Each structure stands twice: as structure tokens, then as C-alpha cells.
Amino acid sequence: MSLNQLHERLWGACRRAGLREIRWHDLRHSFASQLVTAGVPVRQVQEWLGHSTITMTMRYAHLAPGSGADLIQALEDPSAVARAWQR
């Protein structure tokens, strides 16, 4: 099957679903965005997507929930900090 045929199938599925035409890259971006939003570590997303640099993957990290305040909060629990170093 040619690339054009694959695009036609994707766009046909979009039309049937009442969506705008999307590109394959849109699916890739959505996949990465949903992983980051779900809390999957960015390094893991980098590996799964095959990005050679973390910088590329970080373009998706802006969608991560919270501002990091919850991570700073962990410092207030000394046992949580100790457990992190024991892994």
C-alpha cells in the first residue's frame, strides 16, 4: 500500500468520525502528549518515540499536569526523599 493510500484511509476515517483531516504526525504528537499528561516520565516517552534528544521530547512536556509544586512538596516529607534515593 502506498503512502498516498494510507493518507486517504486516515482521512476517510476522519471524515466518518466527523473530524478534520489529521496527519500522521498529529497522531504521534497526541500519543506523546497523552503520555506526558498521564505522568509517564519524559525519558520514557523519549525512548518510545525514538527521539535522539530530550529537547525534542520536552516540546510535549508543557502539557504535564501541575507546575511542579507537588514535586517540591515531596521535600517536606524526609522519608519520601530517603525512599527516592534508595531505588
Briefly, what is this?
By secondary structure, the protein is mainly α.
Mean pLDDT: 79
Element order: H for helix, E for strand? HHHHHH
Distance between the termini: 47 Å
- Overall number of strands: 0
What profile does the largest beta sheet have?
A: none
Q: How large is the count of helical segments?
A: 6
Tally of structural domains:
1
Q: Which stretches of 5+ consecutive residues score pLDDT under 50?
A: none
Overall morphology: elongated
Q: How much is the radius of gyration in Å?
A: 19 Å
Q: Which range does the strand content fall in?
A: under 5%
**Would you tell me the structural class of the helices and strands?**
mainly alpha
Helix fraction by DSSP (H/I, runs of at least 4): 55-70%
What this model shows, in words?
- The protein has one domain.
- It is elongated and about 55 Å long.
- The chain is mainly α and 87 residues long.
- The termini are far apart.
- It has helices at 3-17, 24-37, 42-49, 54-58, 69-73, 78-86.
Tag the structure with descriptive keywords.
87 residues, mainly alpha, 6 helices, 0% strand, elongated
Task: Describe the SSE topology.
Layout: H1 3-17, H2 24-37, H3 42-49, H4 54-58, H5 69-73, H6 78-86
